[in-house]
Amino acid sequence: MEENTIIAVENIDFKYEGKNILEDFSANFERGSFTCILGESGSGKSTLLRIINGLLFPQKGFVKIDGEVLSKENLIKNRLQMGYVLQGNSLFPHLTVYQNMIYCLKLLKKSDAFCKEKIVELLPLVGLKDDLLHKFPDEISGGQKQRVGIIRAIAHEPKIVLMDEPFSALDSETRDKLQILVKDIHQKLQTTFVMVTHSEQEAAILGTALLRL
Ligand SMILES: Nc1ncnc2c1ncn2[C@@H]1O[C@H](COP(=O)(O)OP(=O)(O)OP(=O)(O)O)[C@@H](O)[C@H]1O
């Protein structure tokens, strides 16, 4: 594995109910890159993201995160080094905006004061105001939910941020704004981003690398 590789997917096979989705598939993701995954519907883009996140395990081959083979034993540790933004509303409905944002920080046992400081620092980055913090997800707009989801994914300073069509449920104006915002966040944080998208245009705006399935 090259030194600059942060995620190595090595010769994986993945089947759902006997149907091959990925076959002897390999890919390397460079540290600090923004890889956009493009491909036809059903080609296995979301499946690949779930395999990288350890939500699914391949029947053959493996994924290495920073040189370590992802396994059931080190799954929690590795997951906490990743952020995950999903399509549509993936916020916990029973938690407030603030509680959603600090979810991973709390799993990492960060103090209340640390969490508060971190969220105050991140709010302007995604263009949100603090009057939203005590609302519940069903009291805010789709664009605001995705902004909250982005904070939840980056607040614990993960090494890797995975995004699965994060803007697909949004109107074009909100989508354009959030694309710029995510590009800025990537440039500021220098974190590795992997994003599934259907849009060649989005991939051209955001991606520093392209992966076609
Ligand atoms: N839980 C599941 N059980 C069985 N088959 C599944 C399951 N999840 C996905 N599939 C199938 O696996 C294939 C790959 O799905 P996946 O969601 O990874 O594709 P995708 O490239 O992300 O598609 P899209 O662009 O439509 O979101 C599809 O044919 C899908 O129907």
UniProtKB/TrEMBL annotation:
Residues 7-213 form the ABC transporter domain. InterPro entries: AAA+_ATPase, ABC_SmlMolc_Importer, ABC_transporter-like_ATP-bd, ABC_transporter-like_CS, P-loop_NTPase. Keywords: ATP-binding, Nucleotide-binding, Transport. PROSITE patterns: ABC_TRANSPORTER_1 (PS00211), ABC_TRANSPORTER_2 (PS50893). It comes from the Bacteria. Transmembrane segments: none annotated. One of its GO terms (molecular function) is ATP binding. Signal peptide: none annotated. This is ATP-binding cassette domain-containing protein.
